[in-house]
Amino acid sequence: MLMRMTVLGTGYLGATHAACMAELGHDVLGVDVDPSKLSKLQAGDVPFYEPGLAEVLKRNIDAGHLRFTSSYEEAAEFAEVHFLAVGTPQKRGEYAADLQYVDSVIESIGRLITRPTVIFGKSTVPVGTAERLGRRARELAPADVEVEVAWNPEFLREGHAVEDTLRPDRLVIGIDKTRPSRAEELARQIYEDTIASGTPFVLTNLATAELVKASANAFLATKISFINAIAEVCEAAGGDVTELADAIGHDDRIGRKFLNAGIGFGGGCLPKDIRAFMARAGELGADQALTFLREVDNINMRRRTQVVELARQACGGGFLGTRVAVLGAAFKPESDDVRDSPALNVAGQIQLQGAAVSVYDPKAIENSRKLFPTLDYRTSLREACEGADVVLVLTEWSEFRQLNPSELAGLVRSRRIIDGRNCLDATQWVEAGWRYRGLGRKMQADWSV
Ligand code: UGA
Q1: Mean pLDDT, to the nearest integer, of 369-387?
Q2: Is residue 269 annotated as a catalytic residue, yes or no?
Q3: How far apart are the C-alpha atoms of 364 and 360, rounded to whole Å?
Q4: C-beta of 217 in contact with ligand 1 (< 6 A)
Q5: Are 439 and 422 in contact (CB under 8 A)?
Q6: What is the pLDDT of residues 190-225, one digit of tens each?
Q7: Catalytic position from the list 20, 234, 269, 315
Q8: What is the DSSP string of 278-295?
Q9: How far is 84 from 335, CA to CA, in rounded Å?
Q10: Is the distance from CB of 266 to CB of 331 less than 8 angstroms?
Q11: Taking 90 as the threshold, does the pLDDT of residue 442 lie above it?
C-alpha cells in the first residue's frame, strides 16, 4: 500500500532511505536542519559517493514522490509515519554514542504531533534508547494522541546502499510489547513488496531490535579481527592467510565473506559501534561479556602500526628523505568516506614520521584533504607513484587490483610494494621484478637484500 512518510535526517542513511522508500512507491518528505545538504538533494545531487543513488533520487524527485524540507512543522503535517535517521557518532573522548541528534529530533517532532503517529528509529543506538524516546515522545504529544516509537535498524553497507535498502537480508521491527502497537501493521504495509519478494520479517521487542544491530556489527568486526590475528600467526609461522581463509571459508558454518585479512576495518560504523556497545554493556553491568571487543579493537588498530613498520623496513629502516606512494584513502572501495579510514591513518603516520607521502584515491581525495590537509594528494595513480621508494596499496579499488606491474616499474625509484589489502596477484608482481609484501602471505620479500 502506498503511504506518506518522512525521513528525519538526510545524511548517508537518511538520504538513501528516503530515495529508496520513494522508489518503493511511497510519498516521501526528507527533513534536515542543514540547508546546504537540502538544496543539493532537492537538485538531485548526492553529497557523497554512492553508486546508483543519484539515479534513484533524481527519478523520484522528478516523479514527484520525493521532496526535502527543513521544516518540522511541514513534516508533522505531512505524515503520521516518520523514520528517524540521524547520526549517532562516538562522543568526544569517550566510547559511548552521542545521542544529541536523536534526542533533538524527538524534541522537534514530538511537540508538533497532533494525530496518532508512529516513529520508526533507524539509527544505531545503545540498547534502551528506543524505550526512552518513546516515553519522551508521549510526554511531548497531547495526552489523548497515541504516539509510538518502534525500532527498524538499518544494515546497509556503504557502496551497496541502494541494493541493501531495496533488497535487505532481513527486516527487523522492534516494538514496545507492553503497549498497543500499530508498528507491525504499518511496517508490513511500507515493506509490502520487500516482504512479498521473500525477505524475512523479524518482529521482536525494542531491546532486541537495538541489540540485533549492535551484535551484527560486533560480529563482523570480530570476524575481521579474527582473520587479522591469524594473519599475524601465519606471518610468524610461514603460512598464507588468504589460502587459509579460502580453506576455512568452505565450511558453511564459517563462510568466506568478511575473512579478508589486511589493514583492518574502519569507517563511520564498525569502530564506533563496537566501542558504544562496550560502553553500554558497562552501564548495564554486563561489561565482562564484551571485554573481548576491546581485543578486537586492539588487533584492528595494531594492523595500522604494522603496515607503517613494514613500510619503514622497505625504506631501509627510516622514513627521512624517502618517498612513499599510497594508493587508496577511502575506508573501503566504492566509497569516498574517509572517517576512521585505515588507509588515511597509515598515510598520515608515515608522513608525520618524515617521509614525503603522495596519495591517490579515485573518489576520496576531496574528503581526505579536509581531514588531513598536509598530505600530498595527486590526481592520478601514476603521478603518485613517481620516484617512490615503496608503493602501498591500502584500499582495494579495482583500478589498483588491475594494475600492470611492468607499467608501474618504470615510474618508481625502487620496485617495492606492500599489499595492505591482499588484493594483488603476488606471483605477477614478483615475476615483474617487484619485491612484494602482503599481510600474512607466504610470498614475502626480504627488503634487506
Ligand atoms: C557496516 C556493516 O557491514 C553494515 O551492515 C552496517 O549497516 C554498517 O556498517 C552500519 O552500521 O551502518 P560499512 O561500514 O559500510 O558497513 O562497511 P563494511 O563493508 O562493513 O566494511 C567495514 C570495514 O571493514 C572496511 O574498512 C573494510 O575494508 C573492512 N573489511 C571488510 C576488512 O578489512 N575485511 C573484510 O573481509 C571485510
Answers
A1: 96
A2: yes
A3: 8
A4: yes
A5: yes
A6: 999 999 999 999 999 999 999 999 999 999 999 999
A7: 269
A8: HHHHHHTT-GGGGHHHHH
A9: 23
A10: yes
A11: no
What is the rounded average pLDDT of the residues 17-40?
Answer: 96
Q: Which atom of ligand 1 is nearest to the CA of 421?
A: 33
Please give the pLDDT value at position 147. 97
Distance from residue 50's CA to the centre of ligand 1 (Å): 14
Q: How many CB atoms lie within 10 A of CB 33?
A: 16
Q: Is the CB of 344 under 6 A from ligand 1?
A: no
Q: Which H or E run includes 431?
A: helix 426-431
Nearest alpha-carbon partner for 68 in 109, 103, 101, 40? 40
Domain range 4-199, its CATH number among 3.90.1150.10, 3.40.190.10, 3.30.420.40, 3.40.50.720 = 3.40.50.720
- Classify 214-296 by CATH class: mainly alpha
Domains 214-296 and 304-437 share a fold: no
pTM score: 0.96
Q: Which amino acid is at 61?
A: I
State whether the beta carbon of 78 lies less than 6 angstroms from ligand 1. no
Tell me, in angstroms, the distance from the centre of ligand 1 to residue 271's CA: 10
d(CA 77, CA 115): 9
Q: Is the CB of 299 under 6 A from ligand 1?
A: no
Q: Which three cell numbers stand for residue 296?
A: 578486537
104-129 residue pLDDT tens: 999 999 999 999 999 999 999 999 99
- Report the distance separating Cα 172 and Cα 153, nearest Å: 6
User: What tens digit of pLDDT does each residue of 131-171 get?
Assistant: 999 999 999 999 999 999 999 999 999 999 999 999 999 99
CA angle 229, 234, 237 (to 5 degrees): 130
User: Domain boundaries in the chain?
Assistant: 4-199, 214-296, 304-437
Answer whether 441's CB lies under 8 Å from 240's CB: yes
**Is there an atom of ligand 1 within 6 Å of 271 CB?**
no
Q: Which CATH superfamily is domain 304-437 in?
A: NAD(P)-binding Rossmann-like Domain (3.40.50.720)
